[in-house]
Amino acid sequence: MRSSSISSIAIVGLGLIGASLLQALRRAAQDAGMTIHFRGHDPAFDQKDVDRIGTLGLDCFEPDKQRLYDSDIIILAAPVHTNIWLLDEIATFAAPGTLVTDVSSTKQAIDRRASRLGIRFLGMHPIAGKERHGYQESCDSLFRNKTVIFCGSQGILEAADAKAFMELVSLAGGNVSVMGPEEHDRAVACVSHLPQLLSTALINHCCNDIPVSGPGFATLTRLAASPWHIWKDIIETNREHIGEELRAFGNELIALADDVEHKRMETIRNRFDSANTLHELLNRRNSQ
């Protein structure tokens, strides 16, 4: 770890991702011989939750905003719109120059708001998760060998504290990648947001025939279990890119339907061959 070691991290939002980050970053810090004080808050917690999150490594459950935000790094791990709203709170209570990051699935909207408020912001998106949410589902291995995308200006990416934090995430097992906020939102609209909406649409479309469905259908509709309160913010803050991907995929379905109706079997076979090759590459990547 660099000489500009991090001594304190605040995590706002202690659900699946926030609590998993807590455990993963604490483990990484301990492995590196670092001592980091972790404080956090979640407005949904009762005393039982506060006691249990302490067993997962939180040093202090801190409802006082002044003390909560008195940290080297602030991680916003709430839903997207809540994270954006919290930036105004941070601008009021955190010391100028504090590095703020988040785990939101979209980056352009929150990056723009942080810029307007003059907050040093390093967007973070761990490409990891589960269908079930809550700190009860959290674990320190959730991000191991998973891509963690960082989005920030060149100045932020080259800052000592940002580099130290990205290194800590890497030590926690994340495969760190860097891209711009717009590039990020366009990419995740394709490989994350589109699959979610397709899974949702498919199970609704096939609702009358679910009794005769098999494991293949269950696999393809796994994402249909995802909660609306998470996806509402994602769709609202990335609607342009998601709309483009849905329309493009719709055109693919229309073309495929035309091939099927006109018995263009060689064209359909080429689609299968291409899909088989791409799936093999995907499995190879995920097994690394």
UniProtKB/TrEMBL annotation:
Keywords: Oxidoreductase. The keyword Lipid metabolism does not apply. Residues 7-288 form the Prephenate/arogenate dehydrogenase domain. One of its GO terms (molecular function) is prephenate dehydrogenase (NADP+) activity. GO terms for biological process: tyrosine biosynthetic process. InterPro entries: 6-PGluconate_DH-like_C_sf, NAD(P)-bd_dom_sf, PDH_C, PDH_N, Preph/Arog_dehydrog, Prephen_DH. PANTHER family: PREPHENATE DEHYDROGENASE, PREPHENATE DEHYDROGENASE [NADP(+)]. This is Prephenate dehydrogenase/arogenate dehydrogenase family protein.
